[in-house]
Hints:
By secondary structure, the protein is mostly helical. It has helices at 19-32, 45-52, 56-68, 104-125, 128-143, 148-164, 169-179, 183-189, 195-211, 215-231; strands spanning 72-75, 79-82. It folds into two domains: 14-82, Orthogonal Bundle (Arc Repressor Mutant, subunit A); 104-231, Up-down Bundle (Four Helix Bundle (Hemerythrin (Met), subunit A)), CATH 1.20.120. A hairpin with a 3-residue loop joins strand 1 (72-75) and strand 2 (79-82). Helix 4 crosses helix 6 (148-164) and helix 9 (195-211) runs antiparallel to helix 10 (215-231). Residues 90-94 have low confidence and may be disordered.
Amino acid sequence: MDADRDPQLELKLDAGRPLPEVIADKIRELIDAGTYKPGGRLPNESELARGMKVARSSVRTALQRLEALHVLEVKRGLGWYVRRTPPPPSTSPPSWLEGRHYRMSDLFELRIGLEGLSASLAALRATEGEIEDIAKLNQQHKEAGDDQDELLHTDEAFHEAIVHASHNDPLIETYLRIVAELREWRYQSYAVRGVPQRSYREHSKVVRYLRNRDSGGARLAMNSHLQRPYDELTDIDDEPLDTMYSGPDVEPEWHNRNPDG
Length: 261
């Protein structure tokens, strides 16, 4: 028997859902059951990761998701705490999309705007630890190979980590409400040959700009990454949104900085 595994933290993995979402649901379940009480402190990220047998980066993304939903709060230097007045016991945020039928291109345009801004803010506000976690998530994305389920899991975790690193709560909440609507499309996109490797390389470019604290470059790199799949949508207008930089695609020379970290 594995001495580190905590039976209370055992996860029910679902191939159709990203791992951080499964972790977040488990923590929410334990809160609703009274295992973690309002105002109480959670085990630290390392302890949760060991108990669930998952990467610490996945735990952090899950905790950040619950913070955005006002289930948890982080006290710098102390850890993660359950909010004293938790929201109603629901695992999903209320959606203003419910009952509405927006075009895929409309949602994707909103995603581009939110993620471009998130990358820009993350370059300014993210901690060094958050940026390194983002880089590790991209490495996991590369290691997913051709496994569509794992590619989706790691892609969602990478992008969500950048959004959380913006430290802008309304932005985070809005993003979480729209991104689920794009999940099936994202899953199918990874069946196309060459997409996984291209995704990893474009993610890596975003990471370089984040590491060098280049806010404008991070936004442009993210917009460029999302422009290609947007252009492939079938419901866009004759003159679609163009978010890409029209100049030469050459990264700047960051003086006194190492672009590879």
